[in-house]
């Protein structure tokens, strides 16, 4: 398994590094990166999820056990993060960044790893993980922003954040279409497959381009706490729940992969919009992305 993980992780690392290099060298206009990320998030990745679910044999996948494992583990780690706040010695906006760093995940890294590890069911398992994790972490994060951030949110805005997420909508649509026995018309399937294939390399380049390390040097304690919760508590909680509900095989590996991913660059945008500490969030994201190169194979080797 360790060899498989390293083989699947190597293109992820190379593409993220290329994204860093392209941004540092200003090979592309600065305006390219936000537009590329928008294209990936709203068009390419949803196409990948929808096509992957419609064409996969999801009837054989343990969707209920996978859902319970992911949600329960995230809630446990969220509670631990709230309990650990006195140790952080930071203000409310700073705590929102640590909270996001402990539970959020990077879609592009997770999908690429799942597809590399399990060519047949990886995309479908990744789509299910996204459909479960995205609303869970968004609801928890927005509630923490409402309590500790500088921008106050109403329930309507919280609901809209979740209900309009393109990855959740694409995953639910794919599951519904598969359950109804619908087939994609000729030409549509190959087109969606091509769009989906483009999402992974472009998304990983955007991950590299978005990395900012300057903030990490200023807040060693909160960055360390967020990373310990993400790379330590989260996979341990996931494994414990998986043992209780009987989750195993490819679904268990995919769950662990998604739960030990670094936090997403979109966390920075959320911190900026909802009154969090955006520079600290950028530092947490950058440090976790680098640490993930070692922690992902290490965690899987120790727990499986």
From TrEMBL:
<keyword id="KW-1133">Transmembrane helix</keyword>
<dbReference type="InterPro" id="IPR038770">
    <property type="entry name" value="Na+/solute_symporter_sf"/>
</dbReference>
<dbReference type="Pfam" id="PF03547">
    <property type="entry name" value="Mem_trans"/>
</dbReference>
<dbReference type="GO" id="GO:0055085">
    <property type="term" value="P:transmembrane transport"/>
</dbReference>
<dbReference type="InterPro" id="IPR004776">
    <property type="entry name" value="Mem_transp_PIN-like"/>
</dbReference>
<dbReference type="GO" id="GO:0005886">
    <property type="term" value="C:plasma membrane"/>
</dbReference>
<keyword id="KW-0812">Transmembrane</keyword>
<keyword id="KW-1003">Cell membrane</keyword>
<protein>
    <recommendedName>
        <fullName>Transporter</fullName>
    </recommendedName>
</protein>
<comment type="similarity">
    <text>Belongs to the auxin efflux carrier (TC 2.A.69) family.</text>
</comment>
<feature type="transmembrane region" description="Helical">
    <location>
        <begin position="123"/>
        <end position="146"/>
    </location>
</feature>
<feature type="transmembrane region" description="Helical">
    <location>
        <begin position="236"/>
        <end position="260"/>
    </location>
</feature>
<feature type="transmembrane region" description="Helical">
    <location>
        <begin position="39"/>
        <end position="56"/>
    </location>
</feature>
<feature type="transmembrane region" description="Helical">
    <location>
        <begin position="280"/>
        <end position="303"/>
    </location>
</feature>
<feature type="transmembrane region" description="Helical">
    <location>
        <begin position="167"/>
        <end position="184"/>
    </location>
</feature>
<feature type="transmembrane region" description="Helical">
    <location>
        <begin position="196"/>
        <end position="215"/>
    </location>
</feature>
<keyword id="KW-0813">Transport</keyword>
<keyword id="KW-0472">Membrane</keyword>
<feature type="transmembrane region" description="Helical">
    <location>
        <begin position="63"/>
        <end position="84"/>
    </location>
</feature>
